[in-house]
Design brief:
Order of helices and strands: EHHEHEHEHEHEHEEHHHEEHEEEH
Pfam family, one: Aminotran_1_2
Radius of gyration: 21 Å
InterPro entries: Aminotransferase_I/II_large, HisP_aminotrans, HistidinolP_aminotransfase, PyrdxlP-dep_Trfase, PyrdxlP-dep_Trfase_major, PyrdxlP-dep_Trfase_small
Organism: Azospirillum rugosum
Keywords: Amino-acid biosynthesis, Aminotransferase, Histidine biosynthesis, Pyridoxal phosphate, Transferase
Bound molecules: pyridoxal-5'-phosphate
Strand order of the largest sheet: 2-8-7-6-5-3-4
Distance between the termini: 42 Å
Cofactor: pyridoxal 5'-phosphate
């Protein structure tokens, strides 16, 4: 696509397969793990109020939002950095700490923004294998080399829906050289209620090389606004504040974020809804004879492998669902071509998906 004698991007850029987001044109959209209940009404009100001040630049330091986050999660506001989605913070971390010749390590079915971010700075993405679709700490440690600059672990992971325990994460950190940044991407942490899990803030507080990335796009259901944050050791917060745009988070996003974080009842309801309908969906799909991969998040992988010929084709199933206006995510880019990832939606939506899957298998 590059013109002869035309501008040539830096090495690595043209190796990127551009990220393909979930499709939009359907009446049931379960392809992007957006919160099932939509945003808190309080966040919507705050967003609307922000319309009166559209001529003003946002607070570049996002002070009110950082304070709200710090209060809610028991963190030091000074070491929170907000971004236009956690995607921006992931990119900035890679840009700040890796370059040509360096390696960015992540796990086999890890989130695609890690290899995309690595290639965009000319670094090499390196994959460590998983065990049972779960991050394998020993495999990650075995793939660390003197060139490794960052290790990304989505915990729980998207798209597998699995997690590693706080103990395992600490073991991973303990095995890394001190110059390697461990980024714990806890985009789905709010859905968790497991005693052996930690989103990673304890490691951030104890070590200078651990970052926890969080998002408002999942349980807070503000994906449209692009809002994420990172909790960092002081040195890394300083680096991110140097490389980020001075006004990288819009005022409307900051206002909505503050309101969303304050609406704890809404988050509780969202979490309970998710657990209830995820377990219901898993049971129904299993009863249809399909395989599900158990998930602790707001999505589930449905696996068509082992079905009779024709019914073992995840893409055919996806097209069948799409024909009914139901959008779910294809998984070839994640190395899981026999699976579809289905986000947990409303009760009515989940019932329609089950009916459609049943009809696909019967057709
Ligand atoms: C959805 C997701 C994100 C981030 O989203 P933003 O909308 O950019 O905040 C980050 N990591 C994982 C693993 C995700 O699934």
């Amino acid at each position: 696509m590059t013109q002869p004698n035309g501008p040539v991007p830096r090495p690595g850029i043209l190796d990127i397969a551009a990220y393909v987001g979930g499709e939009h044109a359907g009446h049931i959209r379960l392809a992007s793990n957006e919160g099932a209940l939509g945003p808190s009404p309080k966040a919507v009100e705050a967003y609307q109020r922000a319309a009166a001040e559209l001529h003003r630049y946002p607070d570049g330091g996002a002070s009110a939002l950082r304070k709200a986050i710090a209060g809610r999660y028991g963190l030091d506001a000074e070491r929170i950095v907000c971004g236009a989605g956690s995607d921006e913070l992931i990119s900035l971390l890679i840009r700040a700490y890796a370059g040509p010749g360096d390696e960015v390590l992540y796990s086999q079915h890890g989130f695609l923004m890690y290899p995309i971010g690595a290639k965009s700075v000319g670094a090499t993405p390196v994959q460590a294998p998983e065990t049972n679709l779960t991050t394998d700490v020993d495999a990650l440690l075995a793939h660390v080399t003197p060139r490794t600059k960052l290790v990304f672990v989505a915990n729980p992971n998207n798209p597998t829906g699995t997690y590693i325990t706080a103990e395992e994460m600490a073991r991973l950190h303990a095995g890394l050289p001190s110059n390697v940044v461990l980024v714990i991407d806890a985009a789905y942490a709010e859905y968790m209620n497991h005693n052996d899990y930690s989103a990673g803030q304890d490691l951030v507080d104890r070590f200078p090389n651990v970052v926890m990335a969080r998002t408002f796009s999942k349980i807070y259901a503000l994906g449209s606004l692009r809002l994420g944050w990172a909790y960092c050791p002081a040195g890394i917060a300083d680096v991110l504040n140097r490389v980020r745009g001075p006004f990288n988070v819009s005022a409307a996003a900051q206002a909505a974020g503050v309101a969303a974080i304050g609406d704890t009842d809404f988050i509780e309801r969202s979490r309970a809804h998710n657990t209830q309908w995820r377990e219901w969906f898993a049971g129904e799909v299993t009863a249809l004879g399909l395989t599900i991969h158990p998930s602790v998040t707001n999505f589930i992988l449905v696996d068509f492998a082992g079905q009779t010929p024709g019914k073992d084709d995840a893409e055919a199933a996806r097209q069948f669902l799409k024909g009914r206006g139901i959008l779910v995510r294809q998984m070839p880019a994640y190395g899981l071509p026999s699976c579809l990832r289905v986000s947990i939606g409303t009760e009515a939506e989940m019932r329609e998906v089950v009916t459609a899957l049943k009809d696909f298998l019967a057709a």
